[in-house]
């Protein structure tokens, strides 16, 4: 009798409305969970019985059932924070952590560094990414844990000093005297260099004109900083000549002595190349090298590639997810790059709790890559992705589920009344 079946149909409606309430309640409960993705309850009608057999037509339904709970991977609001290790993905993809069950995937980027220097999430699972090269200059394709590493870096001895300068062609010829360099040179410039133990030394390069288009230089340090030197008396460490053509372009460099013998534990015979640019003889154009024009001698800039030992002073992520460390000597080193994984079917991922997902057969395998590449979202630093749950919409869905539940109770009570009338026929 269809009255009896209506009881079961009503019960399926109650179960469906209750399940819907559970999904909505879970969404509301996680409205403040970082990186949380709300879900939607999806229902299907149950197998219907045909009153005319397999030919179809005049079918009576058997109620409803919960078919799927589908996560909604829409972008959550990205909020700014003051924590440099807070990261958010703007677009498609997931952060990757090394969880107990294997690789875990999350949109929650509330990370920090643990006592061992590893970048971890709130549960201590290590964040995965791409490693940097040995010199910290660029990111490689090698994958592994993101690690801060040693907060102190060794000194880098200076191997080259580059000059961008002009020597005044109007100067008179002078005979250089190493015992009185200031008065016997036409021009001088000083630069700080570093020995192999990171000690800074002031090197003064003296330039004197030998003839029109022909100059020589002498790189000297105070004798108190040189092996066998006398404090207060300059000691020569390197020398050479510069030759210019009639247009004032650097035609040729002729290197001479080059042995920087610093004291106080420094290695002897340190080679420091004095680079005045690419001369015409070396294939240069003369536009990016030292010149000899009829204007005042000057050094526009000089750079050197050495540094002292240093400790970490700050670090930062850029929008490519690259972690850069800045040390108190001004040096910067790349420590690694956060990896982003993407899936063909995000909805097929399996929730494991703790804001983590793991891959399944339905989701497909994770494709690890760098932020912003091949459809992956960019990584935003000092940012965190909020839950994508819209409270207003959830409240509306809550009211709808409540009404559905009430309506199905009416089905059951009405069926009960009808059945009672049937029982009353005998009286």
The number of distinct helices, counting runs of at least 4 residues, comes to 3
Most strands sheet: 10 strands, antiparallel
Question: What are the low-pLDDT stretches, counting only 5+ consecutive residues below 50?
Answer: none
Total individual domains: 3
Q: Structural class given helices, strands, pairing?
A: alpha+beta
Distance between the termini: 21 Å
- The average pLDDT value, as a whole number, equals 89
How many beta-strand runs?
30
Task: Provide the helix percentage.
Answer: 10-25%
Strand content: 35-45%
The backbone outline, from C-alpha atoms, is rod-shaped
Q: What is the rounded Rg?
A: 38 Å
Give an account of the 3D structure.
The protein is α+β, with helices and mostly antiparallel strands. It has helices spanning 2-29, 181-184, 391-424; strands at residues 39-45, 49-50, 59-60, 64-71, 78-80, 87-90, 94-99, 102-106, 112-113, 119-120, 126-132, 139-145, 152-153, 160-166, 187-194, 200-211, 214-222, 234-244, 250-258, 273-275, 298-304, 310-317, 322-327, 332-338, 340-342, 350-353, 356-358, 367-369, 378-381, 383-385. The strands form nine sheets. Strands 7, 8, 11, 12, 13, 22, 23, 24, 25 and 28 form a ten-stranded antiparallel beta sheet that branches. The longest helix has 34 residues, at 391-424. It is rod-shaped, with a radius of gyration of 38 Å. The two termini are 21 Å apart.
């Amino acid at each position: 009798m269809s009255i009896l079946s209506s009881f079961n149909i009503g019960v399926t409606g109650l179960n469906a409305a209750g399940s819907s309430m559970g999904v909505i309640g879970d969404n509301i409960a996680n409205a403040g969970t970082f990186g949380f993705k709300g879900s939607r309850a999806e229902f299907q009608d149950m197998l219907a019985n045909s009153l005319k057999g397999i030919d179809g037509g005049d079918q009576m339904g058997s109620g409803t059932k919960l078919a799927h709970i589908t996560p909604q991977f829409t972008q959550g609001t990205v909020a700014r924070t003051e924590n440099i290790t807070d990261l958010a993905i703007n677009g498609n993809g997931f952060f990757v952590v090394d969880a107990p069950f294997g690789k875990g995937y999350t949109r929650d980027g509330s990370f920090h560094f643990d006592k061992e220097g590893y970048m971890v999430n709130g549960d201590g699972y290590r964040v995965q990414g791409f490693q940097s090269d040995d010199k910290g200059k660029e990111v490689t394709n090698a994958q592994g844990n993101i690690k801060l590493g040693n907060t102190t870096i060794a000194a880098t001895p200076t191997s080259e000093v580059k000059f961008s300068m002009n020597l005044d062609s109007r100067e008179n010829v002078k005979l250089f005297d190493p015992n009185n360099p200031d008065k016997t040179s036409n021009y001088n410039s000083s630069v700080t260099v570093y020995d192999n133990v990171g000690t800074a030394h002031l090197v003064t390069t003296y330039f004197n004109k030998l003839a029109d288009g022909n100059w020589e230089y002498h790189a000297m340090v105070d004798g108190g900083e040189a092996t066998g030197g006398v404090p207060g008396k300059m000691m020569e460490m390197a020398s050479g000549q510069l030759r210019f053509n009639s247009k004032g372009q650097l035609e040729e460099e002729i290197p001479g002595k080059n042995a920087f013998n610093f004291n106080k534990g420094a290695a002897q015979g340190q080679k420091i190349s004095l680079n005045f640019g690419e001369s015409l003889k070396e294939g240069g154009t003369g536009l990016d090298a030292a010149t000899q024009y009829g204007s005042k001698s000057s050094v526009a800039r000089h750079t050197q590639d050495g540094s002292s030992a240093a400790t970490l002073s700050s670090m930062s992520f850029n929008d490519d997810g690259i972690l850069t460390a800045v040390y108190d000597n001004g040096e910067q080193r790349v420590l690694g790059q956060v990896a982003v994984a993407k899936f063909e079917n995000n909805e097929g991922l399996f929730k494991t709790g703790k804001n983590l997902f793991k891959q399944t057969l339905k989701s497909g395998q994770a494709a690890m890559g760098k932020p912003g590449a091949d459809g992956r979202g960019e990584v935003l630093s000092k940012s965190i992705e909020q839950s994508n749950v819209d409270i207003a919409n959830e409240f509306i869905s809550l009211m709808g589920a409540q009404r559905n539940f009430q309506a199905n109770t009416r089905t059951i009570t009405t069926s009960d009344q009808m059945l009672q009338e049937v029982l009353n026929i005998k009286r």
